[in-house]
Amino acid sequence: MARVGVVGLGTMGSGIAQVCLQAGLEVIGREVEPQLGEAARARIDHYLSRGVEKGRLTAEEKDAALGRLCLVTDLSELASCGLVIEAAFEDLDVKRTLFAELDRIVAAGAILATNTSALSVTQIADAAQHQERVVGMHFFNPAPVLPLVEVVRTARTSDEVFGAAYAFVQRIGKEPVACNDTPGFIVNRILIPLLNDCVRVLDEARVTPEDVDRAMRFGAGWPMGPCTLLDLVGIDVHVHASEALYEKLREPRMAAPPRIVAMRNAGLFGRKSGRGFYAYDA
Ligand SMILES: NC(=O)c1ccc[n+]([C@@H]2O[C@H](COP(=O)([O-])OP(=O)(O)OC[C@H]3O[C@@H](n4cnc5c(N)ncnc54)[C@H](O)[C@@H]3O)[C@@H](O)[C@H]2O)c1
Hints:
Blueprint: E1 3-7, H1 11-22, E2 26-30, H2 34-53, H3 59-67, E3 69-72, E4 83-86, H4 92-105, E5 111-114, H5 121-125, E6 134-139, E7 148-153, H6 159-171, E8 175-180, H7 187-204, H8 209-220, H9 226-233, H10 235-249, H11 258-265
Parallel strand pairs: 1-2, 1-4, 2-3, 4-5, 5-6, 7-8
Antiparallel strand pairs: 6-7
The structure holds nicotinamide-adenine-dinucleotide.
Residues 8-13, 31-32, 36, 87-90, 94, 115-117, 139-141, 233, 237 line the site of nicotinamide-adenine-dinucleotide (NAD).
C-alpha cells in the first residue's frame, strides 16, 4: 500500500491525502475537474507550509510530500493503487457508481474504502463485484488534526482486508477503532443526538449559546461547548447527518431541531460562512 488513491479532494479528501503524503506514501488524487485538483493541492500546500512555520516539519519534507502527490481526473489512473479511499459527495448513487467502477479498475489484492459518515457501507459495497474487499474508513474533520479513524466492516468484508485496513490506519499515525456497519458508527451515533439535545435546551431552558457552552465545559468537562463545536463542524453538515440518521433509526432525538434547520436554510453554517451560533471574522 505504498500508493494510495483518494477519490474526491474536497474538505475530507484533501485532508486524508495530506495525512497519507505526510506518512511518506504516494497519493494519486482524483478530482472531477483539473482546477478542483489544483485547489486541493494549494490547500495541502497551505497547511504543510503552516506546519513548516510552526516547526512541525522541514521545508524539504514539505516539498517531498507535495512531490508524492499526483493529480488525475480519470478514475482508471488509480489502477496501480493498493488502497483507494473514496471521499466523494455524500450520495449513495454517486458512491455506488464509483465503487462499481473502482472494483473493475484496481488489481485483485487492492482494498476499497469509503469515508462515508452516514450511508451504509454495505449498500455501497454491494455495487462492487468483490464485496469482500470493501471497508469503511471514517476519518474526522479536520483529518490531519483528529486522530480517530473508525474502521468499519460489513458482513461481507474479509478478515484479511479488515486487518490490512486497520494496520494501514496505524501506519499513517492515526488511532483506528473497529466497528460494524451500523448507522452513525460510533461517534456520530452518540454525538449527533447529544448535540441536537443541546440545541433543544437553548429554547426549552431559555439559555444563550454562550451559557450552554459554558455549562458543558465547566460542568461536563467538554473541551469546547456544543454550539462552538456545531459551528466548527458546519451547521449544514450536522443537519444533513441528522436527517440521514433519523431516516435510518427513526429516533426523535436524531432529528435536527427546527432552530438549527432554520439556521441551515438561512446559510448560517458556522465558521465557514462567517456566522452560526457565533460571528467570525472573514
Ligand atoms: N465534512 C465532514 O465533517 C466529514 C467528516 C467525515 C466524513 N465525511 C464524509 O466525507 C465525504 C466527503 O465530504 P466532504 O465534506 O469532503 O465534501 P466536499 O463537498 O468538501 O467534497 C466532495 C467531493 O466530491 C466530489 N464529487 C462531487 N460529485 C461527484 C461525483 N458525481 N463523482 C465523484 N466525485 C464527486 C467533489 O468534487 C469533491 O471533491 C462524504 O461522504 C462525507 O459524508 C465528511
